[in-house]
Amino acid sequence: MDKKKAMIFAVVLAVVGVILIQLMVSGEKKKYTDESMLTNVLIAKRNIAAGTAIDQNMLEGKKLYKNYLPKDAIRVSSLTQIIGNAPKVDIKKGDPILTSFFKAGVAGGLTSSFLSSAILPGERAITVRVDQESSVAGLIRPGDYVDIMGTFDKPGRAPVRTTITMLQAVPVLAIGSQVGVGATRQERAQKNYGSITLSVTLEEAELIEFARRKAKLIFVLRNGEDQKTEEKIPEVNFGNIFGKAGLAAMQKRRDAMNKKRHGRIEILK
């Protein structure tokens, strides 16, 4: 191989090397910035001494890298499961809150005696009748968050049947008589419950009580880590069904959401 070919070969190797390094750096950067690699967990806002009853002001949510979290780190969606309970160890400011910090059965799910403690100050518990259709085929569980919608005859000279979303991200305290995901295996397997109990403000309780006497309420399950509320949700009526432009725009948004899940749905086991 003459000098010219050797030089060209060396340049090609150098370019390939630079490209590979850039790909590796890009991959590492994506690994640490990709939202799918993060999980929203509870951490201590201040030092918490063992034996001190937990209240909401002691905790905050923080997105941390999944691979470096203990397996028993408690997610923000499970906040109500530890409010009112005391850890058996000291917790330092900034530490993730772990199930192992509490007595067995506490952080794994609510207990019957703990239900009142799970209701935040200023909120109330309200129970609403549900069936398989209105409760996501009975798959809602304590600790989940739901949106509440209903279909009503909107008042006017010519009443228009309209569906609206009344409340978003409402925490579920209990299903039927099951309080907490840490109940018995038989209770966890229960799917034919006839009611769900929610933690709401007094104003929200009045809204739910009024609405449920006018129409069947539907409870829409959402990701426990997604507490974002949608603004200006449009009412839906026959105009939305027969309006082709509206349906086309809605389908574009659906396609965008499907891309986020990479076209694959994880099967729960």
Structure description:
- Helices cover 27% and strands 22% of the residues.
- By secondary structure, it is of the alpha+beta class.
- It folds into 2 domains: 35-101, Alpha-Beta Complex (Type Iii Antifreeze Protein Isoform Hplc 12); 118-244, no CATH class.
- A hairpin with a 5-residue loop joins β4 (145-154) and β5 (160-175).
- The radius of gyration is 25 Å and the shape is flat.
Distance between the termini: 60 Å
**Roughly what is the average pLDDT, rounded to an integer?**
79
Helical region count?
Answer: 6
Shape estimate: flat
Low-confidence stretches: 108-113, 181-185
Residues in β-strands, percent: 15-25%
Tell me the number of structural domains. Answer: 2
Set out the fold topology:
Blueprint (H helix, E strand, L loop, with lengths): L2 H31 L4 E7 L14 E7 L49 H4 L4 E7 L15 E10 L5 E16 L9 H5 L5 E7 H11 L4 E6 L15 H5 L1 H17 L9
Antiparallel strand pairs: 1-2, 3-6, 4-5, 4-7, 5-6
